[in-house]
Amino acid sequence: MDEILKILIVDDDEVDRMALRRLLKMAGVQIEAVEAHDCGVAIAALKEQPFDCAFVDYRLPDMDGLELVQLLRGDNIKIPLIILTGQGDEQIAVELMKAGASDYIAKGRLSPEALAQVLRNAVRVYQAEMLAASAERQKEQLARQREDFVSRLTHDLRTPLVAADRTLNLFQDGAFGDLTSDMQDILTVMIRSNKNLLHMVNTILEVYRHDAGRKTMSFEPCELRNMIEEVIEELRPLIQEQDLKIFVDFPAQAKGVIAADCMEIRRLLVNLIGNAIKFTDHGSITVRLSEVEATGAAEPSMKSAVIEVEDTGAGISPEDQATLFDRFRQGNHKRSGSGLGMYLSRRIVEAHNGTIAVKSALGQGSRFTVRLPSSRCATT
């Protein structure tokens, strides 16, 4: 060790303290030593100044070494504590290590080499732990800064986008005068682009809420059948614009009532059905709702709602399927967006203890299957 180590030596015997300093010097260890003759003085020194290591005699007048280790670790003092024990105190040594001592060495086996080795190991472990803790704190700080930045950014972006959406809709409704056919077409494109941007900003915000553990879920009965129909009506202009057909397949007896955060499930449906529309140039989209026995259910009455969204679009390659639900994953399709939509869908499903899967082949369309378990799934 080339660096000078600041060492605390705790021993009520001055001769033993001198012997310890001499052995460290013989081992070539450069130290700045501070001495304490009892635990009270040692504790005060440890709280007032930093040390690289402390050598502590087990038998002290005001407290034994085990009690001191327990007290220091309880006060979150983490420096290496090397305990000097008497001969044959193996059981005591075990208790010391359990309490948080870094190491121990019997006074009868003290030598320059043994002392230097114990000190070197304890200091290296301590430095590695401090480095890891510092890296973890830095990582947490960066994560908090990132979350704050994203939160502020999305808020600042949403405000003008919402205002623009309202203003554009007023223009389209003729609030500021009559519009020509060409102006109506241009406004329609502008409104759609603005909505796409707003949807992207909202998606980013939701993803970071989930990842930061700040997403609050409010569970209540949600009727999936009505919700699917509402989402389809909301997206119908896009369906008609692309001249697609959309079919629903709901068994008459299945309403799909589950206990869930209805807003999050609606967001999930908009993502899945919206993606099916986006990546389907010709043909149709089919949305199915069914109910099955919950996997591993203890009671026969427990149900799971199963939602399937199937399209006749371009399909997804096996390579893209492998990473489809990953964060910031972007597909090779020219219409691929931010890479967050499917990731957010997965997080929503997982937050409801459900599963999401995809089955697809290039040129043959895709089928997304969501299973949402709930003991309150109704069949009436």
Detailed description of the structure:
With 380 residues, the protein is of the alpha/beta class. The chain is 49% helix and 19% strand. The protein contains 10 helices and 12 strands. Helix 6 (181-211) packs across helix 10. The radius of gyration is 34 Å and the shape is elongated. The model is unreliable at 376-380 (pLDDT under 50).
Instruction: Supply the helix-strand structural class.
Output: alpha/beta
Q: What share of the residues does DSSP label as strand, in percent? A: 15-25%
Question: What is the spatial order of strands in the main beta sheet?
Answer: 2-1-3-4-5
Averaging pLDDT over every residue, what do you get? 85
Anisotropy-based shape: elongated
The parts where pLDDT drops under 50 for at least 5 residues are 376-380
Task: Specify Rg, calculated over alpha carbons.
Answer: 34 Å
Number of strands: 12
Q: Which range best describes the helical content: under 10%, 10-25%, 25-40%, 40-55%, 55-70% or over 70%? A: 40-55%
What series of H and E elements makes up the topology? EHEHEHEHEHHEHEEHEEHHEE
Number of helices: 10
- Biggest sheet overview: 5 strands, parallel
- Termini separation comes to 77 Å
